[in-house]
Structure formats: structure tokens, C-alpha cells
Fold each of these.
Amino acid sequence: MINKKVFPPKEMELKKSNISLRELMLILIGFIMGHASLFNIYPFGLPFISSIILKDKNKAYLILPVFIGTFTGVKNVNFLWKYGLAYIIFTLLILTFKKEINIKKWLLPFLCSASIIMGGLLSFLWVAPSYYDIILLILETLLSYISVIILSEGLTFFYTLERGNVEKLIALTIISGSILKLIGNTVFFGVSIKNLIISAIIVFSAFARGTGEVFGYGVILSLLAYPSSLLPWALTFYSIAGCFASFLKKYGKIGVLAGFLIGYGIYHYYIGLRSVNFLNYQSLILILIATFLIPEAVIKKLENTLSLNEESSGDINILKDMINTQMIELANTLEEMGKIYKYPIRDGNLNPLEDSILKIKNRICRDCALFKACWDRDYKSTIADIFKLYTAKEVFLDGDLPRLFKVRCGKLEEIYRFIKMDKEKNELKKVLDAMVREISDISFEKVKHFASCLKMLAKKGIDENRYAEDLKEELSKEGINVENIIIADEGKGYSYYIIKRPCMGNRTCEVKIMPFFENAFIKGADMLKVDCPLRSGKEKCRIKIVPRSFLSVAVGYVNIPKEGASFSGDSATFFETVGGQYYMALSDGMGVGEKARNHSEKTLLIFENLIESGYGLEDAIRILNSAMQVYGSGGDSFSTLDITFIDLSSGMAEFVKAGAVSSFIKRKDKVESLRGSALPIGVMDGINPVRIRKKLMPQDMVIMVTDGVMDSIKSEGDKEEKFIKIIESIKTTNPQEFAEKILKKVLEGSEEKRDDMAILVGLVWERKN
């Protein structure tokens, strides 16, 4: 979004397309399901796709990762033809009967089975089948039909998780998988502890929760706990056993255990001795005893602790603390590694003169007949005369020479040439050493600043729901304590889901919470009680707050380089965050041209990434300042930063200026200027940008400019006053036209030599929720 011209107002909100965590998990599990085999057949790939399409026909693209999983697993060429044809036939059947599939739910399992049997029959044209192959194909067809029915219910949990619970699922499974990996292949009295724990989780969750979460635990714990060589077997066993156990849970503990044993039997019956035996008889007996002895209340409490739908964020906080600790340790390690740049590059035991004397002695004089006379009997005189020759600024062979060389030295010319070359080499070394020291100092500073950035990132922590935390803090000041706030983007606007303890009859919802949001939002809000404990008897109160209207921002942007330059050093960015905040930012890189542009673009890119990662505005600016010190160390590079932050629910705006010129707010015919003076980004360690808060209303316009615009205004008086008159004279409400007209009017009366010029205009407008 950097340095981009903008569009008409209704198309201003840039919606980013990204793959959700849920879809990534489906793609991964699809690959695994396609790869999972039973006795050299692959009966789960097409049933998996069928079960997904039953829930969402737009997920047909999962055919590709599932087929890749099957393709990478098949070792037999004939089987490759069989499954390749089956996938092609299935795709054609889906395209042919796509309308009927939505109406006739039985049709998709039938098409899946038909694809497998048709692919198998066609593959028999290449290789004549045996009776065993025909029987195996029939069994695979029946198994695929049953698998579609099982998986269509087993995968329901991917579509019923509330917003944010996929993240909790990942955190939970990471912790569980870490414990299981720590246990490893530990065996105690013939019992595999890891297999026993996973089986117990499957049985307990089947009893307390149901098919969806059992399948989820079976798939995800298998992915984490077992190596790739055992993964297909683990996935098959726990999925089948868990699903059968949950189907029979209505008959109580006996039904769950019977279902688990049926799944265990089916697994071993179809796979036989080729499979991996995850549970021996001792393990089965322990699971039976534990299930009967543990009270149902304890099982339910344990399952609630492991539940995928619990709102508590404790596990995530633990995970964040672990990550933060590791980041701080990494920063300390980097800081220690950076000290390497302070160590001397070469051994400094010998100075250049000593080194030269040794080389003359060993390389030139060693084979001379007078070697012993010079280096043994007259050692001091020899050293003294070499020193005189070495330190002389200029030596003439036919002029004044040290006594030794005049009287008896037969290798004078060779020694002279060596000393001359050695002196030149040492002078060059001094220059190079100075350059290396300078580069080392710069590198050390870069590493030190980078380590500082890492520490700041870790200490501040990434909070993906930062705005929700701010709301909790504001509610707390009003005496309203809530456990969690979830902000959901529901297409036309945002809704706020609040979870708190019951009111106990004091009607906190109506008396305190509703008035708070009435005042916070532009035109008030409506409240819906999703679950009231006074009526339902549950432990938590759940409220949905829907603002009656929201603000949006349409943006216009123009940017031209300095006269004679190919690149503008000014850059801009604008984006909306998940929590309903809008950011507009300008940056002016020092100087002009490509170097200035790169610096300003880098400033805005890091800023945008920090905000979208969940950092608050103040923390993002501090981290950005340290990051730009790393980027610009060793030179005089810096950038100004001009930010406008708008809360789209309340209209509150904050203007942050670091080395930037004034910004302006136009409301109807009145224009207000917002001035700031502070150091640019990346100049020094501490930075205190100017921060101004204002309340914006629909149809307000925010005008942000770089110093090149203000400097280009030709005026004998106050240039800012003349610029305000320019803004007042423009009547259009289209932000792009507004920015272009400002630029045109400024250029009409500009000075002869102008700088880079960038203008960013934001129109605040109202949208109904």
C-alpha cells in the first residue's frame, strides 16, 4: 500500500485476502487423510473431500492437497492409475451433479463410492485382477461410503468453533504435543505411556463431548505425537476408535467403551499384522478400569478444561510468556555474539618491525656466508642498522648507509627492496585495519540495536486483540469488570461480544454496560443478551453489542518527485486493522531520490507490520525507532513520520508527529491546523513524538502533507495560513480530487526550486451497521 494512488470513496477500504487458520488446518489434514493407508489401499482421501463438500461446496479445492497426499503415499504403479482415475472421475461427477448435491445429501457418498469402484475397474484393464483384488475393491468401496458419513459428522468442529477458538486449539495442542513428545516411547510394565494417555483422552472426550471434538483430538494429537512413519496408523486408529466410541455415548460408559473396542477391532481386522499395535491388552484393561472408576463429574471437568470451546485464555498467555522468554534469551545471545566485532582481527604479539627483522634473517640472510658474523657475534649492531634503514624516510644506495651495509653486506639490494615493499605493505595494512575497525563498530551497533528491538518486541508482547484490551480497561474504570471481549468483523461492520460473570440481580448490563457503549459510539449501540444466567442458569453472561453505525475512511493520495529527480523520497500508507481502527501515515526520507524513498518506504513498512501484528501505537513507534536506527546506522539516514489513527466506532482520532509538518482537519467550511515538532524516526534512542487527540465526525476531512508542500507555497506572510485558505477554497468531497486540487493550487504559486511533494487526504464517512 505504499506510494499508491487511491480510488473512488466507496472502494477505499482495501480488503486483504488471506487463508484462515481453519483452512490451513483443513489443507494439512486433507494431505494426511489422502496419505493415510489401510493395507495398501487409501480409502480416506475422497471421503474426506466429500465430507467437506457436504458442509461447504466452496472447499472443493481440497481435492488437490488430498490427491498429493495419496500420490506421495502410493508405491504401486497400478494403484497410482487407480486413484488417479478415481480422483478424475470424482471431480467430473461433482461438476456434473453440483446442483443435486445440495438437495440430496445421500448423493455425495454414493458418488464417492462410485468414483473409487470405477477407478478400480478401469485400472483392471492394464493388469488382470485376482479374486483378492476384486474383494479388496468392494471392501474399499463400502469403507469409503461409511467414511463419508463418519467424517461428515467428525469434521463438524471445523465449522462450529467460535471466533478465536482455532487459535486456542493450536495453543492447546502445542502444549499437549510437547508433553507427549517429552514422554516419548516410555514403556512402564509393558504399557506405552504416550499411547495410553492419547487413548484415555479419546475415550473421556467421547463420553463428555461428542464426535466432533473426538475427531479433532485424534487428528491433531496424532499429528503432534507421532513421526511420519507412524502417522497414518495413528490417524486411522484414533479416528475410527474415537468416532465409534462417541456414536455409542448415549449408552453411558459401557457404550463408549464398547464403541472404542469396536473401533479397535475394526482397525486390527482390516489391517492385520501389518499395522502398528498402539494398545496392548494391559493398556486396554487400564482404560476400562479408569473409565469405570473415575466419576462422571471428574471426566466432564477434565473435558471442560481441554474443551475447544472454552473462552479462557490462560493457555495462550502461558504460550505467549514462553515465546517472550525465548525472544529475550535470543536477544541476549545476539548481543553477546555482537561483541565478536570488538575482538582484534589478527594476533598482535609482533609489531611490524619485529616481523620484518625475522623475515630478513630467515629468508634473505640464512644462506649468506656472513650469517653467523652478523646474527650471532654482531647481533645488536645488525638489528640497529636494520632499524636505521627501516625508519629512514628515504635511502640512497650510493649515499649514507649504516656501517654494516657499507663494510660487508653482500645482500644490500635484496634487503633494501624487501624493506621498501614491507613498509608499503604495512602502511596499506594500517588503512585497511582502520576500515575494518569502522565496519566492525557499525556491525556491532547494528547487532546491539537489533537485540534491543527483539527485547522490546518480547517485553511488549504481541496482542492480537489490543483494542479489546483497551475497552476492558475503560470498562474497568467505570466499575465494570468483564472477562473477555471479542471483536468480530461481520461484513457490514463490527460486533462486540462481551463475556462476564452474572449480574446477581443488579442489572449491570442495562445500568452500566449499555450507557457506556451508547456514549462510546457515534450514534449509540444496540444490545442483545445472547445468554443470561438469570434465565439459563449458566455460569457466564454473554452479551452482543452492535453499534448502530460505523465510520469509514476514503483516501486520496498524490506524490510527485523533486524537479529533475526520478524518484520521490516521500511515501504513504493507509490500512484498516481487524479491531476497527484506521491508520494513515506519511514519511519523508532524508534527501531526495531513490535512497530517500527506500528509507521512507522501509519506515512505513515496519510500522504497518507492527500495527497489524497487534502492537499498540506507542509501542510500535518505539520499536520502529530502534529498528530504523539499525537500518540507518553508519550513515545519516532518518525519516519523518506523520500518523493519523482513527477509531472507526467512536470517531476518536490521534495525530502523531515525529519531525512532520502540520496536519489539517476540514469540517464544513472551517479548517483546524495540528502542529507538531519532534525529532524524526531513527535519529536517537529516545523519541517523544507529539500526540494530539481530536474527535472526528462524518464528512470531516483530514489533510496530511510533507514539508515539500509547505515549502513550495509562495507567500510573504505565514505559509500555513495561505495553505489553510487553499483548503477552504476547495469544495469537492472526493478525497482524490481534493488532493489533486491542492497540488495544482500549490504548484501554481510555487517557488522555482521545489522538493518532493506528497498529499494524503482522508474523508470520514458514515456507514450503517
Amino acid sequence: MATLVLQAAGQAVGGFLGGPFGAVLGRAAGAMAGSFIDQTLFGPGTRRLEGPRLKELHLLGSTEGAPIPKVYGRVRISGQVIWATRFEEVANTRTGRSGGKGGASQPKTKITEYAYYANFAVGLCQGEINRIGRVWADGKEVDISQFVWRLHNGSSDQQPDSLIIARQGQGEAPAYRGTAYVVFEHLPLAKFGNRLPQLSFEVFKSLDDVEKQITAVNIFPGATEFGYDPLPVRRDDGWGGTSAENTHTAAAVSDWSASIDQLQSTCENLETASLVVAWFGNDLRCNNIAIRPGIERRDKVTTPAQWAVAGLDRVTAPLISQRDGKVAFGSTPDDASVIRAITDLNDRGIKPVFYPFILMDIPADSQIPDPHNPSESQPAYPWRGRITCDPAPNQTGTPDKTANITTQINAFFGSAQVADFSIASGTVVYTGPNEWGLRRMILHYAHLCQLAGGVDAFLIGSELTEMTILRDDQNRFPVVTALKTLAADVAQVLPASKISYAADWSEYFGYHPDDGSGDVFFHLDELWASEDIGFIGIDNYMPISDWRDGSSHIDAQNGHPSIYDINYLQQNIAGGEGFDWFYASSADRQLQQRTAITDGAYGKPWVYRYKDLKSWWQNPHFNRVGGVEAATPTLWQPQSRQIWFTEAGCPAVDKGSNQPNVFVDPKSDESRLPHFSSGRRDDFIQRKYIRALTSFWQMQGDHNPLSSDYAGTMIAGDRIFFWGWDARPYPAFPFLENVWADGPNYQQGHWFNGRLGAAPLNALVANILSDYGFAEYQTAEIHGLVDGYIIDRTMSARQAIDPLAQIFSFDGVESEGLLKFRRRDAGATISLSMESLVETKPDKSIINLKRAQETDLPNRVQILFIDGDDNYRQAAVEARKLTGQSQRDLVQEAPAIISHDNAADRAEIALHETWQGRETADFT
């Protein structure tokens, strides 16, 4: 029996405010066809709605009756002058002399100059906003901190401005409630030609609570010479000229200050931040590595600060390698700048955590033998987790599992002692052995944090995954013992700080040698049980999805609607891969051949589950040698330490949640995309990852129980340190590529800058409906992200939503008394057989299928949008069909602020949808 699949049954969201429900949005057959064909310019019955207009709202006006725009997300608008006084004129008279030569007295000349000042208020938009960001005057970004100004955010109970009260009188001054506006007081007009400048403002209005859920972040890049300095530093360019070293915004503050201001205004509930500071390792062989500060160049002269780290200066510090004529990393942060950064965080009320970080500066073709494969050179710019003994375990001649392993491990840590460090003249002085082991790095920074006034927590290392598993001949783990000793030494220097180690998510819970021995070791328990350890640190990049394109893969077949579904993501936080099952090989992953995680010997499958944090935390741990469980447990005491996620994050790339730990960096051999990713930028999956993780772990419950040993839950929900926030302010980074070579990595990377504050499509549509008085609706099924959206004049809700529906391929219908919005690719809503249809006209067929001819379909789809990455200028992208005879164009426009990549993707989808929807069905 033939079956007719209807994509969207029911009635459309007709006129919202403008008319009755009844216009059918979905008439096409097929899951992708939707109503897109009805929204082109071809054929009868075309809808013509005029939504918000695409224009640059950058011209300041003062027009009676001008519409007040509504804004969502982040936008750039100018607004209207809603109040002003006459210009203030200030005369300045000075006396001079003029005349010829000679001894006679010269006549005096009085010169009177006039300066003009303005007092005025600019109405921005309807409704309450969070903040304003950048400000432009006459098209140029300006630092408005040099002026006296005040923002009224448009709340329903805001009070009149003090200046307006002073001029209008008490009780006569309007409060402009429900309208966001800015007041300028005594604005000097000379630099603007003695006139009001054309002002425009970057306005932020959050639509959901993801930003509020973020309480902790990692601040990086870790390698940035003066990038952490609140003090502006300049670089000597010679011949008397200087240029900014760490100031790349219009504001007269350092990049650090501008970026942390952005962070605090974006994440209003931020409590703590981890400051990442990097030294550089030069060899993956632990007995040969030197871990030292690095410098980009020797010939740089800076003022008022000069670079110095751990007793090294520009002359004595090692130079960082170069790739393609550019330095591979920035310099290690200047010691004095780190002190000032810690002080600044404390002054801002942000609890600082110190995170010493090892970056591996090993260029391609280094000719340094790889301990994992001695016949090959070491990989280019590898992960620190690759550091191991020489040769590596399972290689011929390896010292692993022998008494000789301690010699190599001692070389890695070095012999620096607490007594080798002192504080003198505002610096940390070292007088120990001339060596560069891990102990020297960690103890140097412990003393530097002491000099800065202390930190809330201090990490003694991170992700040394191939080091912590090294064993001696007695199955002991000397690296873990050395870390325990180091933690005790740091605790001497920083007795008020919490000390820990940031273990990789694949490392924290145990070691299971892949050698068929059946060994199970809880190898870090000696460290976790130490009285000097304040919490369990985990860099949590566990996968929380296993998504593929199409609908034939297992997770889609199990009823999960999309990778963005919050329930799907949360089910995989303590379930799915790494909990219920694993892939035994890459081939199994391709075929989705999942192997259940079991423990036939002792019925404790949790010992193999890296996601089973609860069982690991609640139970005693028993090592197994040769598959036989020990009679006595390890030193770990159940529920004795809280767990912090010292890192967590997701790259903003297609299917990022499939493999959150990977990153794209062309210089590194570690660079890769997540499993099954197309490489397309996807800010929305990053946002969904944040929401899934925070809403899951910030709640106490059976999944996150209270401890019987300390006051608190298993996971500290307020100590999920997201990776991360760049100390280089957006949009200077990533777009100043002549300053920072890693700018291109931003597009698919883990950065939050410039992404937080965006408007999720479902929240945007919901907010528009709410603003128009609708209360019964469902928008959860539509997915996507725009940076911002503007409704520029009075219109119906349907007119406001329609441009978004066109570009982002969703439809609205009335069903069961609700307005429901669905993606066009969401699959069938209902299936009807021919017997379900009633014949009303015997002389006509129940269904008439029509197929549009090729020349009526577009050869090119163009999308006009506002590019938020280019000072909010108008931009256009297009997609073309490379074959066929059509000469038609389809142009879509919307006042949506979206990224160029996002717009390009939508154009391709629109072109594909139009052609796939060329067949329509009429029902008689």
C-alpha cells in the first residue's frame, strides 16, 4: 500500500497578530520539501510578507514617531536622540604678544576660544538589555570611558537619570521605562567638528541562561608575553616611535583589562578563573626534556615593563621555534605581569586558580628520535601527554617495569627544593642546581603566587598520561609518588591554597595495560589520598554524543531527534560510550559495532568505565595483578575528595560533542576534527554542550550525591572550568592575524569569546512570541544560532519570524492548541494511507502532484545578512547550482547578525531544499 508522508500537517501560524490561522505553510511531500517552494517567487499562491528590513542601523536620528527597534542577542544600532539640552559654550581667554623687532614694548593680544559641550540621551531599543559593548562615533570605534555617560538598561522600574532630573526638575523628568537608553553628560564636541557625532552602539541582550550557568573558566592562551598584564605596555619601534604591545582595542586599557571586562559582563555569575601559564618542553623523552620559559624574539624593547621570567631575560631565555616564518607560540608570560593579573583577579572578586602548563615546542623534522618509534622523528608540536620514558613502554629496551625507571623520572622532575627559592625585591630568586625540571617550574610559580598574595587553588601539573603509568619492578608508580611529594612542597609555600593535579579524563580513574595481563591499577590513588590534595582534578573532555549524518545510525534510530537535543546529550554524560559500551577498534566505530563494558571476574564494570564517576568515588578501590583482585584496598577513602573539572569544553565545530578533546591547529600533528565531523563551524553545539554539562552537574541528586565525608556534592558544580576564555579581547582576536598567528584556529576551536551572548534560534523565536503576547507555543525542536536579530519597526509576529523561518528552514503550525515550530529536516509528522483520505470530488483525483520545471527553479541562492565579525556591515553569500539551464536567482534577506560560515551553510541548504522541494501536492 502506498503511503503519503506529510511533512507538516495542521494549520500554519497565519497572521499571528495580523489575521486568523489558516494559511498552509507545509504542502510539499517529503521530509525536506517543507514549504520552501511556497516561499520562492515561482508559481501561484506565493506568500508575500514583509519582515524586518536589512539595513545598517548606524545613523543617529531624532525623529518624532520613529519606531523603536527590538533587539535580541548582540547587535549594532544607533537609536534616536530622545532628550537634549542646548549646547554648552565655554569661553577660554588667553593673553599673548605680537609685534616687530626692537626694544619697544609689544602690545598684548587677548585670544578668546570657545569650546562646546553637549548633554543628550540616545534611546536604543525596546526592553531590557544586559549591556553595551563597543561604541562608534562617525564610523570609528571610540573609547567612551573618556566621557561621562550612563546606561539605563530599559527595565520596567528604572528611575529617571540624574542629569535629566537636574535639568527638568524633580517629578518632571521621564524615566523612559521599558526603553534602554544612554545619557551623555558634558560631551566635548571639538573632536567631532562641534556637532553631535553619529553614534552607534553594540548592544547585548541575552535570551537564555547559558551565560549565567558559567561560574568558572580557564583563561588562556598561556603563551603571551604581556597579554596577562593589566598595565599597558608599549614596544619601541626605533627612531622615537612606539606601538602598542598589549593594547589592541579603542579603549585606553590593556588587552587583559578589556577581555576580563568582557568576561565579567558576559558571565555575570563568574566566581573563579584558572590562569594558564606555559613553559616549553623540548623533548618527549622524559630523561632528556628541559621545561623552560621561552621568548619570541631577543631584539624587542618594551616600556614601562621589561620581560623577565624565573631569572631569565630576553638574552638568556631560549627562543621559541618558528613555522613558515612565524613564531610557533607566544612568549611565556612575564613574571611581573602574572603577579599583576592575579592581583587584578582578586580585586575583581574572581578567585584565581593557578594552572602551570607545558607546551611542547618540537618543530616538524626535528630529527629528535621518537621514544614511541625510535626510527622516526618526534611529532610536530605534540601534546604533553605524549611525554614518556625512553624507549617508551612496549618498545625494546624500555626501562618501564624495571628499577631503572626511577633514574629517568628523577631527571624529569629535577632536584629543585623549596629552600632553593626566596623572594627578594619583588621577584622570585632561585639558587638551586642549574637544571630545568618540572619541580623548578612548579615551585617557582608557587612562590610567585605567594608574592601575588595567594591563590584559591594551585595545580602541580596536568595530563601527564604516559608518565603517571610508568612502573618500577614492584608495580609501583614513581611519577605519582613524585607528584605527591611535590604537592606537599607546594602546600608549604601556599598553605591556604587547595592543591591538586589535573588528570586527563582517560587517566584519573585507573590504568589498564593493554597487554592481556588483566592488570587493573588505581595508579593515582596514592596522590588522590594525600592529605595535601584538596580536590580531585579532572580535565573532562568525555564524549557526550555518537552522532552521524542522516537518520540510519543507531542514536537516530533510537528516537533521538538530533545531536542538539539536551536530553540526548545529558543521557551520554553518565551513559553511552565509556559507560555502557566502547568501540574496540576504529573499524568498529565506523560500523557502530559497540562492545558492552562488563567485568565477568568481579562484577564491577565501573572499574573500566571512565564515565562512572559516582561508582569510582563511592567505592573502595582494589588493584588487580594478573586479573586477581588484591585483598586490601588502595589508600583511597570513598567520598573523601570533591571532584573539580579543571577543564571542560567543546570545539565550535560540527559534531564537536562526539570528541570534545580534539582541536584544529595546522602546525601540530595532534590536529584533527571530531569523529564524523564535516569541519563546518558550529557554535550551537558548543552552547548545547555547556548547557548539558552545567545543568546536569550543578544539581544535587542521585547522579551527583552528597558526601558523607565533607559538606558538598561529589562534583563541584560551581567548579567546572570551561576552556575557555582568551585574554586577547574579541574581536581584536581572532581578526588581527598580523598580530596573532593563531587567529584562524578560532573558527573551529574551543574559544568562548565572541560566541557567548549569541541568540539560540529556539530562544529567539520564543522571545519574539512572548514579546507579542503569545503564551502557548513550542520552539524546542528548532535548532540554530544567530549572533543577533533586529525588528526595526511595527509588524506582526509572523512578519518578524518569517525571515528566520526562510533562512533556517523551519515551519510553524497550529496543533493541539499550540503554536509548534519544527525543522523541515525533522522527519515525518504523520503518515497517512490512501484509505485515510476522503474523496470529495469523484471526478477529480484526491492528490495532484506537480513538478516545477527546471527553469522556474533558482540557479543561485543569495543570502543577505549582517556580518557581526566585520563591524556589523552588510554582507552577502551565495550558493550556485553548477548544472542545469535555470537562470533564476533567489535572494533572501534578514536583519540577522550571523557569521559568514553560518550564512554560507544556509545558502547551500536553501538551494538544496528548493530543488528537492520542486514536487508539490494539491489535495482536492
Amino acid sequence: MRLAWDMVRHRFAAFAGTFVAIALGVGVVAGSTTLWASSQPETPQRLSATPVLVHSPSVGDNDDGYPEYRSWTIAEAAALTGRLAALPGVTAAIPDPAFYVQRVVGGRPTGDPETALTEGHAWSSAALGGYRLSAGAAPARPGEVALAGPAPGSRIDVLTARGPATWTVTGTTDGPGFYVADATAAALSAGVRLIGLTVSGDAEAVAAAARSAVGTDGTVLSGAARDRLEPESVTRIRWLGAQLLIAMVALGSFVAIFVVASTCALSAAQRRREIGLLRAVGATPGQVIRMMYAETLVVAVLGGAVGVPLGALAAPLLAPPLVAAGLEPAGFAVTGQPAALAGSFALGIVVALAGVWTAARRSSRVPALDALRDAAVEHRAMTRPRWILGVLGIAAGAALLIALPTMSTDAQSSAMMGAAMLLLVGAALLAPVLIAPLVRLTTWPWRRGATGMLVREGTLTGARRVASTAAPVLLTVGFAVLLTGTVSTISQSAGADEAADVPAALVAAPDGVPGLSDAAVAGQPGDSYLSSHALVTVGGTTTRYGVAGTDGLTGVVLSRELADLPRRLDLRFPDGTTTTLPVTAVRDDAPEAILLPRDLVRRHDPGALTPAVLLDGPAGPATGLRVLTARAYVQIDIDEEGEIVQIFLAVLLALGVGYTGLAVANTLLMATAARREEFRALRLAGGGTSHVLRVTSGEALLAVATGTLLGGTVALFCLLAARRSIEEEIGQAIELVIPWGQNVAVALVCALVAVVAAGVPVLRARAGSR
């Protein structure tokens, strides 16, 4: 270990690339895992002052993997509240009906539409969050409200599922939400799903007694278990953020291994004489392997020691951008996570040792006679394993692309990405073979000039060096073209396909609201439906289905997918009531799984909203309504998803380009520094520093151009295959969309880094010779 420390200390420049790669990799992992560990479910602030909470019973998980609950009816909730209030230690049992309400200012709804779905509450439930009146009195009659901000006596415009209304503010609260009289809340909400218990004494003892009293009629939560009540919308935001952080950790670790492996491989090639000398004085292959592992371990420890605090400092700085991007909930704060930092440090060591494995094995086979070699000509770049793996990668990737049209829709995207990875890795492995013809082709116009000849011949002679530079560029440009092209093409084709399914030229759509109110829909010319849901029990299994409330129905109409259900359905509505209805028809064009009469849906779901109106005439003005073309309407959801995807792309491309720049810079710095004798001979032949810089810059640009051409070509073939599959699936031609600006920027960054990295050793050598 002492020898390894001395080698690293005296030749740190040779290990600089590994050090930076590990430091940055550990920093990325430490910051990402700290953010992830800090973003755990929390008890909603509105319920934080209540130690024991009783939730309505679960009936399983919905399609998104979240628990699905049934509501208590108002009568069931009242009976259960009475039983709970009688328990020892319970000071109050408070039901919490919730409903949709948004404030309207200047004729426009305000606030987050998703949050507004449960912003309305009964005044008695304000105690669940410990909220109090700072002025005024509690609401007691319909049309009265208490909320934060407006002074008592003022009047505010609001929007509910029924339509616009004007409420009188009776009190000002010290917490968020709209609080109305309990009877008003019961009329506006669809049943009750939560009862809070305020207690005196031991909360856990009260919780145990509540479990006995509730039985199977609900779930009692206390302590940390209350975190399970975090809203699905918040949980989804955390999930999206977690996906980005996981991708950052995976990419950071993978690319760090790649950079360490390429750096160690190049370093080992440059140290063949040194290693040969060690073999000549008696070093065994095992000792050579242990020496390289020890050197890398020293560098990894140093890099981890820098990366851990770097990540810990970066995590709090990244929290606000994540919240602004909708990838973490409002109020998210980073907390100290020692386990995440320790794990990141350990992962850095594992990554470094994994990266040096191949180089150490190859170095152990260096013969002692290499200590006597003086030729600078590189050993053959293509080994037998490299040939085999490269050819297999190309063949497997091509086979997947050919088979793409025969696969299911769900499997096609994964198969296409797998094919692209195989082709890109195969091209990177075969790069030394492909470089020669590409170099001759690209340098043909400058073949007669002195600089062009030197660039061409130097590149052909140093195929291993050029391949080491081109490989990271190939992978980065290839994935950049593939990912940006895939996202843009799918977005374009999805919009055209979905717009064709909308049977109207114009659509009355929500504007700043989660859906259209009854007042907004009334009198609009066209077709619409109320969007709700119902729980259907068949053979002991309960499943949630989407429900559309439409005019002109007398029974239950099923979509074609549910044609096998019984002819009489047991339904449980959002307000908790149950009924059995006959199935009267099955339709192929049903907008939801189940169609019911509109007035029936409204009766059992007071908060139901209308998604849109398919217009067949001029639309009338209404609060929260705007008129869009069919294409613009379907583009709303596509753009919402696209914003998240673009954030993912930007972060992943930034990480990829950053590591690519590091790999290119490290390779060229090491390789150019090792060519001092070659450049000295060029100067003795009459070339100046500017001439040498032109040669090194030309070689660097040629390597980047080679990697860009190979990566772009592979990605283009994959995109063409993907477009063919999409066209066959939707039955119409689509345009292949490639954001050239982003991809050209990626290539230009790589080129700039390469030119600078190739020029720095030349300028340093010139300064040192003065």
C-alpha cells in the first residue's frame, strides 16, 4: 500500500482523470441519495395536530398502484364518530368531508387545480391541523366561509362543481383551506373518508381502543403510520423525483466506471515498459494486479473524500429547482442523511475497483521483455474478445431492430432501447477497425497539405488513442440523438393519433380548473359527460372503474372491455352508497368503462366534473372554460408529460456530456502529454507551436467527428426502425422529428473540450522549454 501511495503522490497527473471521475460520481450519488432519502412521505399538514386518525377501509390497489378506499356514507360516518367519541381518552371525534372549491379572482380561477379537488372542508375539521380563527367567527350557514387572508365581512367569488358562487367571509384562519359550515360541507362532498381523534393521555392506547371499536370498518393510524395519508398527487410527485434521482445515480455510476476503465486502460498502455521492468525484477502477475488495485483504491478514497462533501453541499441547492420543476412537493427540505453519504463513499470505491479490473488483468500479462522495447508504435488495438463482443453486439442489435415490428406495443420501446445500446456498444468496441476508413474519407480533401497529412497519419497510427477519444463521444451523441428523436417523434405522432379520435373540430376545455362545472356545461352545444368512478364487486373481488354520467340513459352501459361482467352489477358510488343496476347495453365507443345516467352520477358524486364538451356549435362564455381545437386539446396532456420528459432529458444529457467531456479531456491530456518527443521532432523539422497546435487540434476534431458520425448513424437507424413500427401500429405515416439543435450542441461541446484538452499539454511544454 505504501508503494501505491508513493506512485499516486509522485504521478498524480496520470491519475487525475480517475480522481475527478470518482469525485464527481460520488458527488452525484451522494447528492441524489440525500435528496431521495429526504423525500419521504409525510403526514399532511392539515392533519398534523391529530395524533390518531381513522381512515375508511381499503378495497385493494388501483391501476397506478395506490391504495383504493371506499367512502363511508354520511350516516355511517356519523355512527362511527359516535362510537369513537365514547372511547376513554378521546376528547373529540371529528369527521372530515372534503370537496372541490377554487377561488376566482378577476374572473379567473386561482391556485393549483389538482389541490383544489380537496381544498374544501367542514369547519369542525380545522381542529385536525390545529388551525384557529385569528379574526371573526366560524361559518354557520350556507354561503359562509372561513379562510386565510380575506378579512371578515368581505365577499369572495369561488367555483365549485355546481358552478360560480359568492361566499361571505365570516372568519380569518391561520391555516390553508376553505372551511364552511358542517352541513354545507356534507352536501358538497362525496361521503367521508377520514375521522380524526383528539385525545388526552396516551395516543397509542387510544389507537388500540379505536382499532377494537372500528374493526373492519376502517383503518386506525397513529404516529409515523399517519404518513400513509399523504395525497396521491404528492406521492406521485415524489415518485417522479425519485425516478430522476435513480437515473442520475445509475448514469453517474455507469459513466464513472466507463471513465475509470478507459483511463486505467490508457494509463496501463503507456506504462508497459514500467510494468515490464517490474516483471523483469521479479514481480508476479498477482503483484502487478494488486499494485494497480491499490493505486486505484488510494485514488478512490481521495476522490470519495472530495465527492461526499460536494454532494452534501449540492443537495440543498438542488431542492428549490426540483420543487419548481414539479419533481418534489412544495415545502420540501433536505435533511442530513449520514447513511446515504457513507453508502456513496463505499459505492465510489466499488466503482473504481470495477473500472480498473480489465486494465489490471491486461497489465499482469505484460512480459518482462517489454522493459527493453523502445518503439512508440501501439500494440494492436483489436483483441479477440473485443472482436467477438463487438460483432455480437452489432448482430444482436440488428436482430432486435429487424424483429421490432413483430413485438407487442409494450415490448417495442424496451426492445428499441436495448437494440440501440447493443449497437452503440458494438460500434464503440469496433471503433479501431472503423476509424481507418472514416479517417481516410473525412481527410480526403486535405490529403495533399502538410498539416492534413500529419493529422491523417497520426490518427491512423494512433488508432487506440483515437478510439479511446471517439468512444465516449459515440455513446453520448448516439444516446442524445436517440432519446431526443424518440421523445419528439412519439410526441408528434401521439398528438396526431389522439386528435383523430376526437369527433369534433372544437372542444370546450377546462382553463385553470380540474374540470368543468355544471354551470359551465349548461347550454353548451355538444356532447359531454360527468367523470366519476364506482367500485364493482364480482365474486368477492372489488375493482374500481371509471364512470361517465351521460344524458339519455336508463340503465348501465358497459364498454366492450367489460362485456363479460354479469348482467346485473353491484355498484358502490363515491358517496359510499350501494345499489344493483341492470346492464342494458355494451358500446364500442364508450368514453369510460361504465356509463350511467347523468343525474344518478351527480346524486352520488356531488364533486364530479366534466372533462370537456365536444362542440357542435358556438360555445358560450363560462368561468374556467376555453375553446380549443381538437389537436390543441389532446396536446395539453402530451405537453404536461413532455415537460417532465424534457427535464429528465436535460439532466441526463447534462450528466452524459459532462462525463464525456471528462473522458475526452482526460484521454487527450494523457495521450498528448506522452507525445512530447514526437512534437519536439516536429519542431526540429521546422514546425512552430502554432503548427503543432493545428495538428493536435485536427486530430482531436477528427476523433470527435468520427465518434459523432458513428453514434449519429447508429441512432438514426434505430429511429427509422422505431418510426416504421409506429407507422404500422397506428396505420398512418408519421414524421421523424430530430431536434438537431440539441444534438449539434452536444457534439460542439465535445469538440471544444477535445481541442482545449489537446492544446494544453502543447502550450505547457512550450512554456517549460523557455
